[in-house]
């Protein structure tokens, strides 16, 4: 039986692939559970940078599998919402750098997954949006919090209230994505970026930096600077820092 989620780890770089192209890479409960299991493997591994991508060129992820949802009872629907929220929170809090490699449509819950990543790279033909309002539902996977943080409250309101998709150029212009890859292979491009990052740093530094960015977002600059200073001291005393310092000095 084909697994809905594939995880490949090579040294300090991981690639997680959503493999449900026949369902536009949408996620049912089984797929989300497999996704979470893969992320837990990443957490326990030596991975420093993780690429999150999907099979095919039509859709990065269409969010929830609506066909599956129609077969769920009320308890299973509630569980699905809980699972999806847990998924985006887990990606957001993962102690590794995460890169979303996006090809095709990135809508609804798929965009919420991408927003939980540290970096978003797409193809020139990718599209982005929150269409939930057009069918009378709401984004429940953290998009109402992460989108305003990424693009500002005014733009997030417009995206979510009107449900109109954005082109790749429009998404980059407002800061929703960081890079449009013109090479024709966005997955390879993202992997090279992950490999470069992993070769330049260590897991402890990435973990601390991500934690400080999250906790420091709502604090005064002086407090944030002190947190970074204390974190730097902790890193300088770690075995990884000492090992790398001696290696660079030789």
Automatic annotation (TrEMBL):
GO terms for biological process: fatty acid beta-oxidation. GO terms for molecular function: lyase activity. SUPFAM superfamilies: ClpP/crotonase. InterPro entries: ClpP/crotonase-like_dom_sf (IPR029045), Enoyl-CoA_hydra/iso (IPR001753). Keywords: Lyase. Pfam families: ECH_1 (PF00378). Belongs to the enoyl-CoA hydratase/isomerase family. PANTHER family: ENOYL-COA HYDRATASE, MITOCHONDRIAL (PTHR11941:SF54), ENOYL-COA HYDRATASE-RELATED (PTHR11941). This is Enoyl-CoA hydratase.
